[in-house]
Automatic annotation (TrEMBL):
GO terms for molecular function: ATP binding; hydrolase activity; nucleic acid binding; RNA helicase activity. The keyword ATP-binding applies. This is DEAD/DEAH box helicase. PROSITE patterns: DEAD_ATP_HELICASE, HELICASE_ATP_BIND_1, HELICASE_CTER, Q_MOTIF. Residues 32-207 form the Helicase ATP-binding domain.
Length: 431
């Protein structure tokens, strides 16, 4: 199905052709016809499926058909996304799509200067892409008004909820007078997400691309059981031995990220950092170096790397298993994109075995274990047998992170406890 056959204007099709887009992806095929007609959309689609174009092209086309002069501090379309990187990426994509039409695009996120954002907002913006936190600051300062908002998009809504943006979303909604055409995109579903969708959407068209909580078919999953203190060596060993050229490594803590990068550099592997303590400009530079191939490895924390589109990424490594099984799906979403083969490699220490069990349940796949000679964990079998006989393990096996019974409040509590335990551990170690 071509973009021209969908009735997009020649100027939009020309820009899409320059982006290399010829045919609609499955999520675009499903969402675009409904969105073009003004319907609300609830879409379950993972990253890498082409969802940005799925929600933004119908908005752009409707704006082209109904041009309006920009009015001071007014916004026609608001797109909310959880992280600055994702906001930046969405805005960048939309700028490409609108290259030949008169539509203004602005991005607003924390960590960048308020004043330059303020100037853009004051002039009026057609499409505003924003993180909820910074947007509220601008709302409170009166830099922006949603009185004439026509389109509203929530991208990676599940992640916004996980990051505690629910009250920010409610505050933003209070500033919106009429019901704009609303589209909600999420990689995973949960009871809290469904409740939000019910609140925000009117008779939405439901779109599901791939089974919920699944990973792309083009990803080969592998687990290396390894002791925690051997992970750094194992990473260098695998990168060198297998000659991996572009590797995104996920860790759970900034400290780990710093240590891993230091170690890789000592081994002569060019690696860059992407975590929340780094300034926006440094993160951008790291990403550029990684994308261009100047750096072979990027070591990132979950939030910082959320939603990043790094095309054709061949290898994603979970140096630490994520706290939530759903995050495995998000992380792995960066590889195996657009039909290319990807490799998802996870280092699993004895303490992380339970998370692995949950991940396997969620993705409904048993992940292949590979032992690398010299890196076998010490007495793993004995420990597993002991763990499996514990009542807590049995109880946990009967749950999944996404089950209806398990509220997200519970999940967050578990998450908070895990962080607390880890930070206690870190403090003790430091002390
Ligand atoms: P997204 O899921 O929006 O992050 O998109 C993933 C990648 O697919 C991005 O690099 C897009 O530029 C690309 N993409 C989106 N739609 C198409 C299309 N119709 N044809 C080719 N590439 C696309």
């Amino acid at each position: 199905m071509s973009f021209l056959s969908q009735g997009f204007s020649a100027d939009i099709v020309r820009a899409l052709t320059e982006c290399g887009y010829e045919k609609l992806t499955p999520v675009q095929q499903q969402a675009i016809p409904h969105a073009r007609r003004g319907a609300d959309i609830l879409a379950h689609a993972q990253t890498g499926t082409g969802k940005t174009a799925a929600f933004s092209l119908p908005i752009i086309q409707q704006m082209v058909e109904n041009p309006q002069s920009r009015r001071r501090s007014q916004v026609r379309a608001l797109i909310l996304a959880p992280t600055r990187e994702l906001v930046d990426q969405i805005a960048h994509n939309i700028e490409n799509y609108t290259k030949y039409v008169d539509i203004s695009v602005a991005a607003v996120f924390g960590g960048a200067k308020m004043s330059s954002q303020e100037r853009k907002l004051n002039a009026g913006v057609d499409v505003l892409v924003a993180t909820p936190g910074r947007l509220i600051e601008h709302l409170e300062l009166g830099n922006i008004s949603f009185a004439s908002l026509e389109f509203l998009v929530f991208d990676e809504a599940d992640r916004m909820l996980d990051m505690g943006f629910i009250s920010a979303i409610r505050t933003i909604m209070n500033g919106i007078a009429q019901h704009p055409q609303t589209m909600l995109f999420s990689a995973t579903s949960s009871p809290q997400m469904n409740a939000l969708a019910q609140d925000l959407l009117r008779k939405p068209k439901r779109i599901i691309v791939n089974a919920e909580n699944s990973t792309a078919d083009t990803v080969a999953h592998v687990v290396y059981p390894v002791d925690e203190d051997r992970k750094r060596e194992l990473l260098s060993e695998l990168i060198g031995r297998k000659n991996w050229q572009q590797v995104l490594v996920f860790v759970n803590y900034k400290e780990t990220a710093n240590e891993v990068v230091k170690e890789l550099k000592l081994d002569g592997i060019n690696a860059v950092l992407c975590h929340g303590d780094k300034a926006q400009s440094a993160r951008r530079r790291a990403l550029d170096e990684f994308k261009s191939g100047k750096a072979r490895v990027m070591v990132a924390t979950e939030v910082a790397a959320r939603g990043l589109d790094i095309q054709g990424l061949p290898h994603v490594v979970n140096y630490d298993m994520p706290f939530l099984a759903e995050d495995y799906v998000h992380r792995i979403g960066r590889t195996g994109r657009a039909g290319q083969q990807g490799h998802a490699v996870s280092f699993v220490s004895r303490e992380e075995e339970l998370t692995l069990v949950q991940v396997e349940k969620l993705i409904q796949q048993r992940i292949k274990r590979v032992q690398l000679a010299g890196y076998e964990p010490a007495s793993r079998d004995a420990l597993l047998t002991k763990m499996q006989s514990k009542p807590a393990y049995k109880d946990r096996q009967s749950r999944t992170n996404n089950s209806d019974e398990q509220s997200s409040a519970e999940r967050r509590l578990r998450f908070a406890r895990a962080i607390k335990n880890k930070s206690n551990k870190t403090t003790r170690l430091k002390g």
